[in-house]
Amino acid sequence: MDLDRLKEILDWMERSSVAELQISDGDFEVHLKKAEGAVGAPPIAAVVPERPAGHEVVSTSFGVIHLRPAPDSPPFVTLGQTVVVGQSLCTIEAMKVFSPIEAERAGKIAAILIEDGAEVGAGHALFRIE
């Protein structure tokens, strides 16, 4: 969600009788609540959760994600596993070409943000490394 859209929502909420509003849009979440006892156009308190700590590994192109080197093989990585720079995390298949996605930094796999076989676009978050 962009900041202009958030400002529109805040302006609308100031003018409306709605006392509380929660919005989820992809990885963006916001909880808005009007202050109690306010006179006139009540101020709004916005609580925006912090983004999780760590480094997100993103897709470099459009394609289908493969979390295993072959259907009967174990996954490239598992949740909680320690990885090193350059280690393969998954592959992206586009037009029968398999391109590896590698760890850009060492750390622990804190989150696997995609499912095996999912279609992704460039910039789609795949993993989070702490």
Structure characterization notes:
The protein has 130 residues and is mainly β. It folds into two domains: 3-47, no CATH class; 55-129, OB fold (Dihydrolipoamide Acetyltransferase, E2P). Helix content is 10%, strand content 41%. The protein contains one helix and eleven strands; from the N terminus they run H-E-E-E-E-E-E-E-E-E-E-E. The chain has one helix at 3-15; strands at 20-25, 28-34, 44-47, 55-58, 63-66, 82-83, 88-94, 97-102, 107-112, 119-120, 125-129. The strands form three sheets. The protein has a four-stranded antiparallel sheet with strand order 4-11-9-6, with no helix packed on it. The chain has a four-stranded antiparallel sheet with strand order 8-7-5-10, with no helix packed on it. Strand 1 (20-25) and strand 2 form a beta hairpin. The longest helix is centred in the first third of the chain and has 13 residues, at 3-15. It is elongated and about 55 Å long. The two termini are 25 Å apart. Mean pLDDT is 81; it is low at 38-44.
What's this model, at a glance?
The chain has 130 residues and is mainly β. It is built from 1 helix and 11 strands, in the order H-E-E-E-E-E-E-E-E-E-E-E.
* Sheet/helix structural class: mainly beta
The helix count comes to 1
Shape-level CATH architecture of the largest domain: Beta Barrel
Uncertain stretches: 38-44
Mean pLDDT, rounded to whole units? Answer: 81
How would a textbook summarize the main sheet?
Answer: 4 strands, antiparallel
Kindly provide the name of the CATH class of the largest domain.
Answer: Mainly Beta
Cα-atom radius of gyration: 20 Å
Give me the CATH fold name of the largest domain: OB fold (Dihydrolipoamide Acetyltransferase, E2P)
Number of domains: 2
Shape: elongated
- Going by CATH, the homologous superfamily of the largest domain would be RNA polymerase II/Efflux pump adaptor protein, barrel-sandwich hybrid domain
Report helical residue fraction. Answer: 10-25%
Which band does the percent of strand residues land in? 35-45%
